[in-house]
Every structure is written in structure tokens, then in C-alpha cells.
């Protein structure tokens, strides 16, 4: 038996519910982790998920902004919500599975346009968010899968042009160093790069500004799945669904999925 877990920054779950339903019908993941749902819990569109057999729905929503959700057709227990933003923004939700593994679903702040915390407070908030995650990670002692939009593309082959993006938020050296610090704080395995080793191109996000996404291919790998070493040993496949970027009313992010042996 296997367990298929998907992470997807959907950029408004209500606006894009049709492509979410299509994805679930075509790929049948066991668990779907969404970021940037942009809806309060009471208005979350649970009916389409339940109609497809996803009856466990754990929410942490916020009106118009942010918001995360974990939708599952397998049992979920012990949900939690960490305030790594330190201002009560809805950017994390976590659960435990019956086998003891935890899933932590996170939406890291984008960080604004200027990579300087003195000039741009949003950039400082992003770095502080990663620092709080790092402190949490240091004491983590249970099998865990960390998924979500981390809003950082760390490797040169995670972006369309390393040289041109060095001063662009999401690929700056200070952000990459912060993310490397988080990764080093525990036995994290970057599952995307475990299955698609660098320097092979690996993108999960393309700007809406691109007139022809396929022609320009100016992508970045902002979405990640990291596993503690014990969980990583059970991972058997990883996939990035690039074709979803060209569906009707797409998110600027695409789903990523890891399959685990259970």
C-alpha cells in the first residue's frame, strides 16, 4: 500500500475549486495540503471535497489573505496551528496520522519586493518566520513531513536565471542561508531534490505576468516537501504537476506530490 500526499498553493480555493476537483479526480491523492486558501473557515467549500470522499478537513483560514488547509480521506488526529508569523496570520496547520507521522503544512510570507529588512519590514518578517521554524525544528523528535509554499528557491537550478535573480526576493543569498539553516536544524531530506537531483531544472511557480509561460519558462521552485530521515526512507516517488499551470483559471503554483510506502 502507498500514501500519496500533495501540496498546492491554490491562490483562492473558492475561485479555483473546479481545477482542484479535476486534480483530485484525475490523481486521487490521499491527502491534499493547500496554502493561500483565502477564506475563513466557515466559508470553506467543504461539499466538493466530501463528494469526492475527502471527509477529514482541517482548516486554518483568514478572510481574503493567507489560509491553509489539510483535506484527507484517511484519518487525521491532533491538529495544531503555530504562529510562526507572530501576528496570528493563518499560515500553518498540522496534523498527525494514525501511523504517528506528523504533517506540517506551512505558507511562508513572500517578503515583499526589496531584500532589506530595514527598508522593507515584510522581508524581515519573512526571515523571522524562518528563524522561528528553525527553533521549532531543532527540538523536533517525531517523524514529520513538512510541506508547503516556503517562498524560497534555494538552488541555482531552482530558478530560471541564478544570476538575474540573486537580488530578487525568493532567491537572495540571505534567504537561501536562512532556509539552509532550517534544513540543517534536523535530519530534513528535500524530497524534490532527492528524486530530481540538481542541476536538473525543477520549478513549481511561474508568474502570471509571463505572456507565454511555456516559451519563456521563467519558473522558480518555491514549493517544497521535506521529510525527517525516518519518513524520507519510505518515500518512493515524487512528481511536479506542471501541466496544471495551463489549466483554466490556474494558480501560479502547481501541485507537488510524494508517494510513500506504508
Instruction: Tell how many strands the DSSP assignment holds.
Output: 14
Give the CA-CA distance, first to last residue.
6 Å
> Topology as H/E string?
EHEHEEEEEHEHHEHEHEEHEE
Number of helices: 8
Largest sheet: 6 strands, mixed
Any idea what the radius of gyration is? Answer: 17 Å
* Overall 3D form: globular
Determine the strand fraction and express it as a percent band: 25-35%
Query: How much helical structure, as a percent, in the residues?
Result: 10-25%
Mean pLDDT: 97
Low-confidence stretches: none
By helix and strand content, what is the structural category?
alpha+beta
Question: Order of strands in the sheet with the most strands?
Answer: 3-4-2-1-14-13
Summarize the structure.
By secondary structure, the chain is α+β, with helices and mostly antiparallel strands. The protein is 24% helix and 26% strand.
Amino acid at each position: 500500500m502507498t500514501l500519496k500526499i500533495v501540496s498546492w498553493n491554490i491562490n483562492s480555493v473558492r475561485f479555483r475549486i473546479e481545477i482542484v476537483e479535476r486534480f483530485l479526480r484525475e490523481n486521487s491523492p490521499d491527502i491534499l495540503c493547500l496554502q493561500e486558501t483565502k477564506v475563513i473557515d466557515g466559508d470553506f467549500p467543504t461539499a466538493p471535497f466530501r463528494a469526492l470522499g475527502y471527509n477529514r478537513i482541517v482548516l486554518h483560514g483568514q478572510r481574503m489573505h493567507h489560509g491553509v488547509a489539510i483535506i484527507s480521506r484517511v484519518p487525521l488526529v491532533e491538529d495544531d496551528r503555530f504562529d510562526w508569523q507572530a501576528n496570528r496570520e493563518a499560515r500553518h496547520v498540522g496534523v498527525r496520522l494514525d501511523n504517528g507521522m506528523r504533517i506540517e503544512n506551512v505558507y511562508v510570507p513572500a517578503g515583499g519586493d526589496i531584500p532589506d529588512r530595514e527598508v522593507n519590514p515584510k522581508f524581515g518578517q519573512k526571515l523571522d518566520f524562518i528563524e522561528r521554524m528553525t527553533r521549532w525544528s531543532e527540538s523536533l523528535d517525531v517523524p514529520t513531513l513538512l510541506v508547503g509554499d516556503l517562498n524560497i528557491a534555494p538552488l541555482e537550478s531552482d530558478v530560471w536565471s541564478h544570476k538575474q535573480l540573486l537580488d530578487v526576493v525568493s532567491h537572495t543569498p540571505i534567504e537561501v542561508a536562512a532556509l539552509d539553516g532550517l534544513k540543517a536544524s534536523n535530519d530534513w531530506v528535500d524530497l524534490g531534490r532527492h528524486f530530481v537531483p540538481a542541476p536538473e531544472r525543477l520549478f513549481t511557480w511561474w508568474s502570471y505576468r509571463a505572456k507565454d509561460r511555456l516559451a519563456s519558462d521563467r519558473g522558480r521552485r518555491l514549493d517544497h516537501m521535506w521529510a525527517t530521515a525516518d519518513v524520507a526512507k519510505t518515500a518512493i516517488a515524487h512528481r511536479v504537476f506542471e501541466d496544471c499551470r495551463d489549466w483554466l483559471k490556474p494558480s501560479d503554483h502547481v501541485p507537488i506530490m510524494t508517494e510513500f510506502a506504508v
